[in-house]
Write a structure and sequence with these properties.
By secondary structure, this protein is an alpha+beta fold. It has a domain at 69-248 and 256-262. 18% of the residues lie in helices and 42% in strands. The strands form 2 sheets. The chain has a 33-stranded mixed sheet that branches. A hairpin with a 2-residue loop joins β16 and β17. The longest helix is centred in the first third of the chain and has 27 residues, at 41-67. 28% of the residues are buried.
Length: 728
Amino acid sequence: MDMRSGQTAPAASLPALHWRDRSRRWARTAWAPAWLERRPGPLRIAIRTIAIIFLTLFAIWLILFITKGRFLKGPFERFATSQLERNVDVGGDFQLYFAPLNIKFHAENISIANPAWAREKQFFTARKVDTRLATFPLLFGNRILRYADLDGARVALEWDEGNKRNSWTFGDPDRPPEPLELPRIRRAAITRSGLTYRDPKLQLFADIDIDTVRATGTRIDDDIRFSGRGTMRAQPFTLSGGLASPNETIAGGKNTLTLHAVGLGNTLDVSGTLPGPTELEGANLKLHARGGNLSRLFDFLGVAIPDTRRYRVTSALTYADEVWKLTGIKGVFGDSDLAGALAVSQPKGRVYLKADLTTRSLNIIDAGPFVGYDPQRLDTMGTGGTVQTVSGRPRLLPDAPLRVEALKRFDANVRYRVTKVRAESFPISHVDLTLALKNGLMELKPFNFVVAGGTVKSDISVDTRPARVRTEYDIRLSPTRLGTLLAGFGTEESGTTGTVSGRVRMVGLGDSVRQSLATSNGRIAFVLPQGTFWTRNIQLAELDIGTFVQKMFQDKLKKPVQINCGLIAFTVRGGVAAADPILIDTQKNVMLGRGGFSFRSEAIDMAVRADGKTFSLFSGQSPVGVQGYFAAPRIDPVSDELAGRAGAGLGLGILASPVAAIIPFIDPGDAKAAQCGPVLAGATAKAQRTSKGKPRDDVGRGTTAKSEDGKQTADGKEKQRKKFLGIF
């Protein structure tokens, strides 16, 4: 229809209209597929946008490839300086471009400044840096250098005096220090280069030189050799080794590492393979270490462990998930074996040590350094090395200080188990120790072992956070057979059925075992329930000569004597332990003890006497003295009282008759039997009662003599007495 006239168009014009429509459709499909015509408009826009971006990137790539990106030198320096907050300068040629997909970075005479506090002015300098950086992994935050060529490069790694800042933490100078993370390098060539490391707090200083020996035409293309020297705690050490990189034509080749280090009396050898020169993940190494003291080896990790005697260990060494693992450990320290596994990591920048170690047979001497004894003295003197003479007195307690500052720098969780301990006097076995260290608080919970068939359970905590180290002791002894316990001291098990249980609870201050005990306060108590003991031991204790000789001639020397109950307890104040009480009730007598000992001077000044419950014609009725020092105790059965009785008897014998000479030695048998309830409860002397329920006045009050002028004495009475323990 003609719109202007309202008339219908002639039929002949319709084919022409259809022809023009087909022409337009053909024109549109001449360059685009038909399926595109059927898609909505936004998809076409997206495809065209991607095409434009691709063309733009290609143009940038082409420009950079042609110009080598040299025009980016200034922007690079400004950008790097801003990001690192350190001055970055390139004094020579500079190239930054895609070749073809990897990023090529080339810089000559480049330098990165150190922070103002550092000893060295420059953190990094190099005559030439030529690298290939993988582009696509970089988009996801992974820095992988496919190739690195460094010439004349020097790196200065430093900690400040307080270990609060390091030179490789860039940006804000007040930010917490970060661990050192190396980029992953697949292949490298390093010539005339090196690095320095300074850690004043750890007292570790090292200078290492690195160079590459090319071996083109062999399986090994580059062999990076390194050698260095330094000091650790003022002791020199040296190291050397190499890292052989496979030829590029070798598919799947491994980098072979060899390392040999000597220092601080230790020799360390590491060999194996790495995925890349700086790729530790997947490392497969073998460690062999030997030397005079294993703790010196751990000093390199910033980890403080107890000293040891001479050692030798081997293990597999791997690195996975940011954890160094020593597995299959086998070796010896001193005369003891060692096996297990150990792992070292650094979560949140703090070293963490986790270990599970076992020993089948432990020589008691090898345990000495764990509590502070000098391993060198033990090597040369054996058990005699535990005793030193100070101011003319023997000293037994170890005085080696804890490395408090080192213990504050790392955390640990260590389990150590020992099947058997080789000791002369005590049969110890099945040691099970778990040590937990966190933020300066070290706990040995539990610390259990079996001695003479009884179990000792201990909880010990050492808090290094206060100004003075605070140690809490809680040691429990389950019922243990006296015959087995004292077998090493000449007591036979035959005829002895008595047992002993006990508990030690004390708190002390100081950074060594000696200082901690010398300032301790608390209580020590051992309970003897009902049982039997040899007659000979009882009679010797009371010096009942008549009964002892009579039983010896009647061949009843080993006849058991019934123990009703007993308590050997001490109250500890300021490192001085006073009997509170010593009270053993037997079938025929009551044994009482007074005095005490000192952790401060290690002196012992006690007296034990036995009063008979039955009449005895010949009885010394006099204390048996226990004196000397921890390292040299002595038994003195001839006391002043016994000598006085002997003198009195001699006088009566001269003045009266020989029969009168025995009068001072007659024991009327009036000893007060003990009420066993308070004894078995481990109560103090004030709570003790006779069998008739009356308070005892013969067991002291847990105090010691303080002077020579009539002040407080061991039994709480006013009397002249010698100076106790030489410390008051």
